[in-house]
Design a protein that fits this description.
The complex is a heterodimer of chains A (312) and B (287). Chain A is mainly alpha-helical and 312 residues long. Chain A is built from 15 helices and no strands. Classes of the chains: A mainly alpha (312), B mainly alpha (287). At the A-B interface, helix 4, helix 6, helix 7, helix 8 and helix 10 of A face helix 2, helix 4, helix 5, helix 6 and helix 7 of B.
């Protein structure tokens, strides 16, 4: 069906081809020689000295014992030591849950202010708020949640005084996995809003009109047209959220003081800790973490290239 | 007759409006709004509840502490140095790639995304590992430079470099987006034909033309640096993040007050970005 349309357009295709032969096919630029590359040397040098060299040094550090002999023990322990395996599991779980939860809430919020029919004036407010909240992480965020949902927190008190619900006897604890997830959500869903709002803007009104003219209901339009188009950018954004939570350290440390052993906290404890101290293992954990983050980023850029086909 | 008809029309339009009322959109907006606001409200409420006689006691105490000022000022100085150094590094690179070296675009964009793969906790241990050994002339034992981690200047250089790495994705993206909207080729040729050298082109032509992009990159960098904890605490540098963390270990009200202050600072930075860059976008959207 699409093919026949293209066949009818052959006339304009010919015009295009003619136009292409008439104009020089390439823009005229100065020939590049090695001197042109000198312009980017400072940037590459900086990246080498402060990004690649430190990262590579951790890889080599994880492969040698403290007395300098080669070992694969540290790498092996990543997969066998229960403490380490559990910390990876914990980090992956918390990142996946907050990426999913934050992703859904963020998507619905972005939907509400773009195509959901809310007053236009709410949009800049939400976008600024999201910019603030996605950058409001770490120690202050942890303190804010202690004041909100801690044992003496604002919400905890309100629920107890007015609705007679005691969160803490009901089993909730801010300094637990669930509590930490709630805190992470605070910087997760605003990031989703920031990424998804432009993508939702990219949905063309013509698509909706075409679907309605062909008799589609609103649900059909969303399921068959909008959602498939948006899916790569939704998944890509969620991967970004995953990485965002996976690399977090200060928020968890300030909230739980290291009692929840996510990977970043374990790395700190192995390399600099008083109780756990095995730098080689810490470096190996860091390498494992870089590997997971690298895979996520590769997935993200692959989905990004899929997105660009429809949305710009 | 007419009034009955009018009422019917009014009723219908009311029903139509009710049907069109974006219930779900409002619901999500309210949930999101509460999620945003409640923690802030709770923080303010808590910070003001120390002494009913003097509601601002927590703020007063927090600002009386000399260590607050020294760490806060140190963080701000780091932020300014990081922003200047980032601009010096990123602007000529992005400019040169747009002008002469489009082949390098992919690799440079890849490098600017690397900080997402290497989180701060890994970066800091890698830097300590590399820069805690003395620099020797290769194949000899002649030391020509002491390790960075052993001097004040060395650690300051390391922490600024680390902050530059952490903020690089944001800075590069802002600058590159800013340059996309300016015809830098024409500007460069015009400047060259008037006899300007490269330094003059970048400082007097390119920088003023991308100032709103620079500002948004700079404010994002500021927001990242001022609250940062990991680099500062593992490199042992005085900064606001570690100070606030330690204060939280043995104090209750002052940390809440300072948390709210740092939220306001983030808000200020983001509001300024919105003001300088979002303003144009909004005007375009209103058409």
């Amino acid at each position: 069906m699409a093919g026949s349309h293209f066949k009818m357009k052959t006339g304009s295709e010919d015009m295009k081809a003619m136009a292409q032969t008439a104009l020089p096919s390439k823009k005229i630029t100065a020939p590049t020689n090695w001197k042109t590359w000198l312009g980017v040397v400072p940037f590459f040098l900086f990246a080498l000295l402060f990004l690649f060299l430190p990262s590579l040094r951790l890889v080599t550090a994880s492969l040698f014992t403290s007395d300098g002999s080669f070992t694969l023990d540290n790498i092996r322990q990543l997969f066998t030591e229960p403490l380490i395996v559990n910390s990876y599991k914990l980090s992956i779980q918390i990142s996946a849950i907050t990426a999913l939860g934050g992703g859904l809430l963020g998507f619905f919020l972005a939907y509400a202010v773009t195509v959901g029919g809310l007053p236009k004036s709410l949009r800049p407010i939400l976008m600024t708020f999201s910019g603030v909240a996605s950058n409001f992480a770490g120690v202050p965020l942890a303190f804010a949640f202690v004041a909100t949902l801690g044992r003496q927190g604002f919400i905890t008190h309100i629920l107890k005084d007015y609705l007679n619900i005691d969160l803490y006897t009901a089993g909730f604890n801010l300094y637990s996995f669930a509590g930490l997830s709630l805190v992470y959500m605070y910087f997760q869903f605003p990031l989703m809003v920031l990424i998804m709002a432009p993508a939702l803007d990219g949905l063309k009104r013509e698509w909706r009109e075409a679907a309605e003219n062909l008799g589609a209901t609103s649900a059909q339009y969303w399921l068959r047209v909008a959602f498939p188009v948006l899916l790569p950018s939704i998944l890509g954004a969620m991967i970004l959220l995953f990485g965002n939570a996976f690399g977090a350290y200060a928020t968890a440390y300030a909230l739980t003081g290291g009692r929840i052993g996510i990977v970043t906290i374990q790395i700190g404890a192995q390399i600099r800790g008083d109780v756990l101290y095995n730098p080689g293992l810490g470096y190996a954990m860091a390498v494992g973490m870089v590997a997971i983050m690298g895979i996520s980023l590769a997935g993200y850029s692959w989905l990004q290239s899929k997105t660009e086909r429809w949305l710009r | 007759m007419a009034t009955v008809k009018n009422r019917k029309v009014a009723e219908m339009s009311f029903l139509a409006r009710l049907r069109k009322f974006p219930f779900w959109a409002w619901l999500w907006f309210i949930i999101g709004g509460l999620y945003f606001i409640l923690p802030l409200l709770a923080t303010v409420e808590f910070s003001l509840s120390w002494d009913p006689e003097a509601p601002f006691k927590a703020y007063q105490r927090a600002f009386e502490d000399n260590r607050f000022w020294s760490s806060f000022i140190a963080s701000n100085v780091f932020a300014v140095i990081t922003i200047i150094a980032s601009i010096i590094l990123v602007v000529p690179t992005a400019y040169w790639i747009r002008l002469r070296l489009p082949q390098a675009r992919r690799i440079v964009e890849f490098i600017t995304l690397m900080p997402f793969v290497v989180p701060a906790i890994i970066l800091v241990f890698g830097m300590i590992r590399v820069y805690s050994t003395p620099f020797t002339i290769p194949f000899t034992d002649v030391v020509f430079m002491r390790p960075f981690t052993q001097s004040r200047l060395g650690t300051d250089i390391l922490i600024v470099a680390g902050y530059m790495v952490l903020s690089m994705p944001y800075m590069y993206r802002s600058v590159d987006t800013g340059m996309r909207t300016v015809d830098i080729l024409t500007l460069t040729e015009a400047a060259q034909s008037l006899g300007a050298n490269w330094f003059a082109i970048i400082t007097r032509i390119i920088l003023p033309n991308i100032r709103s992009a620079l500002l948004s990159g700079a404010l994002l960098t500021f927001a990242i640096v001022v609250g940062e904890v990991i680099l500062a605490s593992y490199l042992g540098v005085t900064a606001f993040g570690p100070y606030l963390f330690l204060l939280g270990q043995h104090r209750a009200y002052e940390p809440a007050a300072l948390s709210f202050v740092s939220f306001l600072l983030t808000w200020l930075a983001m509001g300024l970005i919105q003001l300088f860059t979002g303003g144009q976008g909004q005007a375009a959207g209103a058409h």
